[in-house]
Design a protein that fits this description.
With 393 residues, the chain is an alpha/beta fold. The chain is built from 9 helices and 13 strands. It is globular and about 60 Å long. One of its GO terms (molecular function) is phospholipase A1 activity.
Length: 393
């Protein structure tokens, strides 16, 4: 993948917006609820959205979901090689700082947690669920901003969890029980989840806030599908519980999420909107049904501002796909963002982004694009020759 497909955090993310007055960094983070930036879609905001999507894609590309591997449920790569091994396009501008793990103690359905069949499994209680990263010194110097990014992993099997995960509401302020348990559960049996994903996140962010105290800080949470719900919940948590305050001043916290299910009831929506330093931008593909789950009929409400795009306008994808999961596919959404010119505008790619990415884990592209389906796979599915006679994962 060509690095030009991504977003650099230096000159391309500052001062490159449409028109004579480029959007400021606070405006890109939603200080004015993205007023005037969504239609037409501001070029710099478009790049920021794609950056967040690429951060999400790293969680899919690096996750070991092969139950035959004793490392199933882990991240395949170390933090030092994570972005290089996943060919993340902005690797020069962001450094991974911490990994996040969740536990299966709450008996989550398949597709959310996956585990190895091996008796020597790395963990029988925990899964890697995301990571925290931060702007490099070079990127911070170029932009004047030190950005802490939190990327949450979505589900591996896109739709099967919808019918299994019960849409019960729990306190605080009535968020969906499933999202809440994934975020807050711990398991003292696991060295990776003795502290909940929430506690791991807050500790990592506090450390980064203390390290870069005195710089212009901001926090961006991102995720797709289940990961979008966790991104929204964690952004709210950091804003409401003081993690995003330094020397008495609020650090802006923004969630930029993709294909997000609803996370809670109107009360959580009200509390969310009362926090002055908290914003959410939900990027939704119009044909995607997942953002309608669990449903306002069950007492749920949408949170934040909406950028609605429509993949059916793209001439590159199948017009009438029989796989409804294609509309929820992250790369399909990012492709649509890259070429979106409003409801009345013609679809035309506005950034250098390979169309082939759409088929990374799908068969959504039309056949005349000559791109194989689901082409992103680990070399030899992770098998390697241990010695002259033995292959192992």
């Amino acid at each position: 993948m060509d690095a030009s497909q991504g977003v650099l955090l230096s000159s391309s993310l500052v001062g490159a917006a449409n028109g004579p007055a480029p959007a400021s960094w606070p405006e890109l983070l939603g200080s004015r609820h993205w007023d005037g930036l969504l239609d037409p879609l501001d070029l710099t905001l478009r790049r920021l959205i794609l950056l967040c999507g690429d951060l999400c894609q790293v969680t899919y590309d690096s996750f070991n979901s092969d139950s035959h591997s004793k490392y199933c449920g882990s991240c395949r790569y170390s933090r030092s090689t994570l972005f290089a091994r996943t060919m993340f396009p902005a690797a020069a501008d962001v450094d991974p700082a911490a990994y996040l793990y969740a536990t299966s103690q709450a008996s989550f359905p398949g597709g959310i947690m996956v585990f190895s069949l091996s008796r020597e499994a790395w963990s029988k209680e925990s899964n890697w669920i995301g990571y925290v990263s931060v702007s490099t010194d070079a990127a911070a110097a170029a932009t004047g901003q030190r950005v802490i990014y939190v990327a949450w992993r979505g589900t591996i099997r896109t739709l099967e969890w919808v019918d299994v995960l019960k849409p019960d509401l729990v306190s605080p302020d009535h968020v969906m029980k499933g999202w809440y348990l994934i975020y807050t559960s711990s398991d003292e049996r696991s060295p990776f989840s003795q502290h909940s994903a929430r506690d791991q996140l807050l500790a990592a962010v506090r450390e980064l806030v203390a390290r870069y105290n005195g710089e212009s800080l901001s926090i961006v949470c991102t995720g797709h599908s289940l990961g979008a719900s966790l991104a929204t919940l964690s952004a709210f948590d950091m804003a409401v519980n003081g993690v995003s305050r330094v020397a008495g001043a609020d650090i802006p916290v923004t969630a930029i999420v993709f294909g997000s299910p609803q996370i809670g009831n109107p009360e959580i929506k009200k509390r969310f909107e009362e926090l002055p330093n908290l914003r959410t931008l939900h990027v939704r593909n119009k044909p995607d049904l997942i953002p309608l789950y669990p449903s306002d009929l069950l007492g749920y409400a949408n949170v934040g501002d909406l950028l609605a795009v429509d993949s059916k306008k793209s001439p590159y994808v199948k017009e009438n796909t029989t796989n409804v999961g294609d509309y929820h596919n992250l790369q399909g959404i990012l492709h649509t963002v890259a070429g979106w010119n409003g409801n009345d505008g013609e679809f035309k790619l506005q950034v250098h982004r390979s169309v082939a990415l759409v088929n990374k884990s799908s068969a959504f592209l039309t056949d005349d694009n000559l791109v194989p389906e689901s082409w992103w796979v680990e070399r030899n599915k992770g098998m390697h020759l241990k010695n002259q006679f033995l292959y192992t994962s």
